[in-house]
Amino acid sequence: MPDNGPALRDVHVPHVSWWPLAPGWWVLAALLVAALVVGVWSWRRRARHRRYIESVLVELHTARARHASDGDNAAFAGTVHQLLRRVARSRDPRSVTLAAGAWRDALASMAPKRDVSRLAVLDQVMYRPDAALDIDAVATDVDQWVRDALSPRAGHGRRRAHVVS
Question: Which of 97, 96, 138 lies closest to 116 in space, CA to CA?
Fold first, then answer.
């Protein structure tokens, strides 16, 4: 090779530090933090709602245990009916005044996928101590109805008008 050409040096890549980060990384970090905050908030909200539903159902479990010891169908029906009324009032304040068919319609509208036939007759059974009542079936129906009526998908924002029959 001839020595009369220009003297070339090796190419050196400049040192690029990882800090400070480029703006795109800051945006990505902010999005990740926001997603984490929303996820934690959502998880805590669902956990709080589950605890609320379980605290509502404690009264059902207590009534069931009390019925197992004393066998009083009327007392069980009265306690469960009061529980249903309180839950229904939290969904629709006008439901407190409903009776008979309107009460049944209100129960059905708050948990449309559930059969509410056993729940609708509790207001009659609680005044008849000799009435036959399938406690296990009623307790299961009440548990499922409360969970459905209080579920976040139940549309708490929509209030339905019930006509008293």
Answer: 138
| Per-position b or e across 56-80, b if 16+ CB within 10 A of its CB | bbebbeebbeebeeeeebeebbbbb
Give the Å distances, CA to CA, from 101 to 8, 29, 161, 165. 97, 57, 14, 6
Predicted TM-score of the model (pTM):
0.69
What's CA 73's distance to the chain center, in Å?
30
pLDDT bucket at 150, cuts 50 / 70 / 90? confident
Instruction: Indicate the angle between helix axes 135-149 and 73-91, nearest 10 degrees.
Output: 10
Helix (H) or strand (E) holding 56: helix 23-70
Three-state DSSP state, 130: coil
What pLDDT is stored for residue 163 in this prediction?
43
Read off the pLDDT of each residue in 76-86 and give the average, rounded to a whole number: 89
Using a 10 angstrom Cβ sphere, with 0-12 exposed, 13-18 middle and 19 or more buried, the burial of residue 114 is: middle
Tens-digit pLDDT profile for residues 108-136: 888 888 788 888 888 888 888 777 888 88
Pair of tokens at residue 30: 């902010």
